[in-house]
Amino acid sequence: MTIAINFIRNAGDTLTIDWSDGQVSELDSMWLRDHCQMPVSRDPNNGQRLLNVTDIPEDITIGVARRIGTDQIEVVFLPENHTSVFSTEWLRENCYCINSAFDDRSADRKTLWQHDSFSAGLPTFNYPAFASDPATRTAALEAFSEYGFALLTDVPCTPGQVLDVIRQNGFVRNTNYGELFEVKTVPNPNNLAFSNLGLGCHTDNPYRDPVPTVQFLHCLVNSATGGDSVLVDGFMAADALRKEDPDDFSILVGNWVNFRFSDAVADLRSRVPMIEINDLGNVVRVRYNNRSIATLNLPRDNVKRYYRAYRHFADILERASLKIAFRLQPGHLVMFDNTRLMHARTAISEDGARHLQGAYTDLDGLYSALNVLRRSD
Predict the structure, then answer these.
(1) What is the pLDDT of residues 18-50, one digit of tens each?
(2) Fewer CB within 10 Å, N or C, the chain?
């Protein structure tokens, strides 16, 4: 249904629009001038502003506002005597009275999940189709955006292939582990991920600022017993914590702690909250890694309360009701949001070989790829 304008009203500092569906826009004069769409204000090729907010007079007002046909409004600003023309569609899509702020990352915009959420199967896509068919790639990236992960099958078992997969959708994030890292058992590992031990739920690299936001793991060999992959929706866990004990949730949000990784060539540190919220109170990032949390340095009165909340969150993360487990076979690749999902693995036996290659990228590249694919539909 096309939404039309019933009438407009100019109060000098505010333009009021009454829409045919009953909604009302009250648009500030400074906001309108700042969002002028004319070529003198915005580059017609890239849409970027050509003026700074300080170029707009502080006492800007709307001298004249009138409708042009059914799909445009002309506004004359004073004291500049500058004329802007806005389309009805643009005003409706961008009105701050009607539309919420853009937000494609917070828990409020996602489908939270637990163990029994994927009765029809995990979001799995064939890699040759992903690489060649825009519709398949769009579906895979939409699943990643919605659930925080996606699985690819039939990925060539070629060393370094994980980097090619990343570069189709973004940029490789280099770290002290290199462009890619080998996930296999080695003597005297500098990280327990490179041992045969089982690993509890965690996010990677919380000691790094900024943290790598997406991890790719590509299975080359897996003949060992054990080593099953485990994922937990950290947004769901944070939601459970908030519902079970709002005070515990607030403590993990409000107290920042240190994470650290140190070996012969690196000493990485960060100070961040375990659960991070945005201005609307929605969870946007979770961080948890018991192996790399540094000395807890908190105000004396917060120590007992923090440990209570920390233990509560840790307990939720290890609940079977929240976990999905699956076995990566050669040619499988899992990509997951390292700001949302916790990952883990079961212990690996010594009766066979297990070799994964991992690499990091960032959310901005994947979301950009998805936005461009949607735009071309």
Answers:
(1) 999 999 999 999 999 999 999 999 999 999 999
(2) N
